[in-house]
Amino acid sequence: MAENVLPGHLVNLSDLDWENTGLRETTFAENECLMLHTSLSNLFSSELREIINKSWKEVELKIAKIYEKIPGLSVGFHADGTYFNSEAPWFNTEAREQRIRENSHNIKLIGQTLIPESALFREMGIAQATIGMCTDHSTYPGAIQVSHAGEGGVIDMAVFTSQAALVLLDKAIRKVPDNFYDPMAHDSLKNAVSPTQVNMARLRHIRPHLAVIIGDALSTKK
User: Fold this and answer.
1) Structural domain spans, the chain
2) DSSP class of residue 92?
3) Can you tell me the mean pLDDT for 84-101?
4) What pLDDT is recorded for position 222?
5) Which residues 6+ apart lie within 8 Å of 101 measured at CB?
6) Measured between alpha carbons, how far is residue 175 from residues 52, 56, 63, 180, 182 in Å?
7) pLDDT tens-digit series, residues 1-43
8) Could you tell me which of 214, 188, 190 has the C-alpha nearest to residue 30?
9) Which of 35, 67, 131, 209 fits as disulfide partner to 197, beta carbons 3.0 to 4.6 Å?
């Protein structure tokens, strides 16, 4: 979604935008028995993102080897950027993507795979970072027509960009300290639920595993 983000590039995502069509379940909140109001600000952990940024230079040459004989892919890394989560299953028209570019700050990628996952991670107090993979150049003039399957399609390109992302993730994960703590994420659940907005008996009946998690969160509240 940005002219300088080319197929093969990786993006260390710093923000998320999405369309809310109601077609996907996006929350662990349960009608009549559990209300959650979770902050999604600073969704991607700044400390985890910094570790990823520092790891890039150590793996850049290894990723270049993965792409060496693959036409259409170039090595590149972007230290920040917004991902726009589009509703599946279609690729978008030129007009729609232009509107998204004009209305989303620092947009780098568009895809269909971070909502509801990222919101659910935050609801459950899981710190996260996301490496986005560019598999095509969208609807820019001169770009190869986007296709899902077939030679040079998104599935083909994802095989190699996934390998590159895994190399970067492997390096970064080894740098995460044992005592890593992200208060925005790790305290989010206990700050999102109130005892007055939980019907624990009903929650235990319909979502027993979730009831255990919510019970633990409530027990830590003073």
Assistant:
1) 10-219
2) P
3) 88
4) 58
5) 1, 107
6) 9, 12, 19, 10, 15
7) 999 999 999 999 999 999 877 777 889 999 889 999 999 999 9
8) 214
9) 35
Class of domain 10-219: alpha beta
More confident residue, 141 or 129: 129
User: Residue written as tokens 């990786």?
Assistant: 10
Encoded amino acid at 10, one letter: L
Query: What is the 8-class DSSP label of residue 11?
Result: E
* pLDDT above 70 for 194: yes
Q: Residue 23: its pLDDT value, please?
A: 72
Tell me the residue ranges of DSSP E strands in 134-191. Answer: none
Q: Are 118 and 82 in contact (CB under 8 A)?
A: no
The reported pLDDT for the residue numbered 138 is 81
Strands laid side by side in the 15-18 sheet: 15-18, 82-85, 107-111
d(CA 64, CA 164): 9
